[in-house]
């Protein structure tokens, strides 16, 4: 009898398994694919490895701007792919080793709920039942497609296949201008591919502050990325020369179509409804204070949970919350207000808390401060002045949210994460001095202005 059986070895699942060690719980983890889930194997880590390679390529390409003489760079795609695979393999081995060192029993197979706990259809063809006092469902999500664009693995693909391209595609249409679509558009355009982005909504990166999105759109235009927002595509026509993607009265011809329209939760054939777990629109409904489902001893964490962000670090926090409740009965709910979101494009975009429009729609009287990277010495040194920092607060009250676009945005957002989480007043946060010259000075300048005491 296990204290906890976890179905799914991605961020939410392995974080729950690792955290259970703190309470001496007997834990089993069931994974039908590869430990680490989409994040380590087909998402965060491989995508960011490719993005870093693209950043290095672009840096070398522009070396002459800094007085450094070099030959025009060439991308050795196979070497970059091998490095990506090596990074992924090392991290997967690390997670596997950590789980084993904490006495987590790992089962290779498909897990489904049964009355006694979890039945596992093992990879070797056998079946076993793991008796469990509690179950944590952490089965993650998979790429969605759209009508007419069923994945074939070569011409019409998801991000899974794109991360393993064996050669650089020359012409790519990306359907979906969200985080995944924009990250691929960024890395491919840095390498010199012809890129077309189609987004049905009126803005790329829906939910991100429009001022930050404009920063990325400017960069995309300089790199000749064709951005079409408010546009729906019609089913493609596949020819010997390529794929024709129609939209309205027009069309483009490309070599491959990457569909990046979001991810669907994995809940099929697991016996969830039969066990009494409530599912809405494919997602598991859970009490976000405890991560319990409608069945008290069945918990859900990560991308399968309704109404929470599909982010690896959100899954980590939800895994911790679930184990805390299982082990102690106490609650340690995730503060979703203060979870940073990072788009690892070039330039990066990062946000936390509410955007200005979200705050206004929620009824706040909002004050905002915005500081351009154009006046930041370190950004000028790096020739990365296309960016800005924006912080919003309730008029006379605390900081509600922030967005940064520019170099190191994903690192800098964390100090503003604390400001949002701790409901800091702008004057309180502005009282602390940032080192000079740093890109982070843009945060300090923005806070000073928000507090009514601007410096530059």
Key words describing this protein structure:
Enolase-like, domain 1; 25% strand; globular; 32% helix; 456 residues; FAD/NAD(P)-binding domain; alpha/beta; five-stranded mixed β-barrel; 14 helices
Descriptive account of the structure:
This protein is an alpha/beta fold and 456 residues long. The protein has three domains: 214 residues, FAD/NAD(P)-binding domain, CATH 3.50.50.60; 106 residues, FAD/NAD(P)-binding domain (3-Layer(bba) Sandwich), CATH 3.50.50.60; 104 residues, 2-Layer Sandwich (Enolase-like, domain 1), CATH 3.30.390. Helices cover 32% and strands 25% of the residues. The chain contains 14 helices and 23 strands. The protein has a five-stranded mixed beta barrel. It has a five-stranded parallel sheet with strand order 7-14-8-9-10. Helix 1 packs parallel to helix 9, helix 3 packs antiparallel against helix 4 and helix 3 packs parallel to helix 6. It is globular. 46% of the residues are buried. The model has no long low-confidence stretch (mean pLDDT 97).
CATH class of the largest domain: Alpha Beta
- Would you tell me the structural class of the helices and strands? alpha/beta
How far apart, in Å, are the first and last alpha carbons?
A: 64 Å
Strand content: 25-35%
**Largest sheet strand order:** 1-2-3-4-5
CATH homologous group name of the largest domain = FAD/NAD(P)-binding domain
Oligomeric assembly: single chain
